[in-house]
Write a structure and sequence with these properties.
single chain, Alpha-Beta Plaits, Dna Topoisomerase Vi A Subunit, Chain: A, domain 2, 2 domains, five-stranded mixed β-sheet, two-stranded antiparallel ribbon, 11 strands, 28% helix
Length: 273
């Protein structure tokens, strides 16, 4: 037994959708009586890949006393329930995690001037247009479209938890597909705001909840806009934010969810916090 990271399931929030079952490469989760259950602690590696698949925020990583993750026994388990394809997927998943951990451990010895990889180095940029935030309501699209990005980095896994571009600015938590689907995302949603881009389906999202929670409480952010697509997997983006809100319980923060159709139209806007 050891104190380690492991998945925790809030059964009251679980709606039995089953997304986390396929999202767990180790087959550690199963639906039992309509709820997701951790079938064996030694099958959970604690990386939390399943979290981004949950549309309700029922999953989170906790640190508690548990049996250690057993890679070899888990391989046997996955082979029984998913065959060779499942084993291949699990091995690839763990290889990615090992590479990320190795890169993180090696980072201090390979820093560039200014700190870290140039692609993840934090910097402020001068906006090409007004720094005033554009209203979420409908408006006329400018004839010439220019970038409204005023920060770097943009990807959530590269962002620091505290930065000058967060203070006194609204934050847009943006799905990867949104700015590609609609050309007016830049001027309508990004203008005058800070940005965090993430994909709950394709990203290795372990640590996202903790990072968002820290961003919420460490910076003076008045409002968060979740910009997501209408596809079910994109609900994981909202789930990540909700879990971060539950963890941090920020005071005075307003959170709106904006859902976009695959044709680039806004289909609904909900205030969730």
């Amino acid at each position: 037994m050891a104190i380690r990271k492991i998945i925790s399931i809030n059964e009251e929030l679980c709606n039995g959708c089953g997304n986390c079952i396929t999202g767990c490469a180790e087959g550690a989760l199963q639906l039992i009586n309509g709820k997701a259950k951790l079938v064996k602690e030694t099958y959970c590696d604690g990386f939390g890949d399943c979290i981004g698949t949950c549309p309700t925020g029922a999953l989170k990583i906790v640190e508690r006393e548990s049996d250690e993750f057993d890679f070899d026994r888990t391989i046997e388990h996955v082979e029984k329930i998913r065959g060779e394809d499942g084993v291949k997927f699990m091995r690839e998943s763990h290889k990615i995690h090992e590479q990320k951990m190795a890169a993180a451990n090696a980072a201090p010895a390979h820093q560039h001037a200014g700190g870290g990889c140039p692609g993840s180095r934090m910097r402020m940029m001068k906006a090409q247009q007004t720094s005033q935030a554009a209203p979420v309501a409908e408006g006329a699209m400018p004839v010439v479209m220019k970038s409204e990005i005023s920060q770097w980095p943009l990807q959530l896994h590269l962002l620091p938890t505290r930065a000058p571009f967060f203070d006194n600015r609204e934050l847009v938590v943006l799905s990867t597909c949104s700015p590609v689907t609609s050309p007016d995302v830049q001027w309508r949603y990004i203008r005058g705001r800070s940005v965090a881009i993430a994909c709950p389906k394709l990203d290795r999202s372990e640590g996202y909840v903790e990072k968002l929670a820290e961003i919420f409480v460490s910076n003076n952010i008045p409002r968060v806009i979740i910009m997501r697509m209408e596809v079910p997997c994109c609900g994981g983006l909202t789930a990540l934010v909700k879990a971060a809100l539950e963890r941090s319980k920020p005071q005075g923060l307003v959170v709106d969810e904006v859902t976009m159709s695959l044709e680039g139209e806004i289909v609904r806007t909900n205030r969730i916090y």
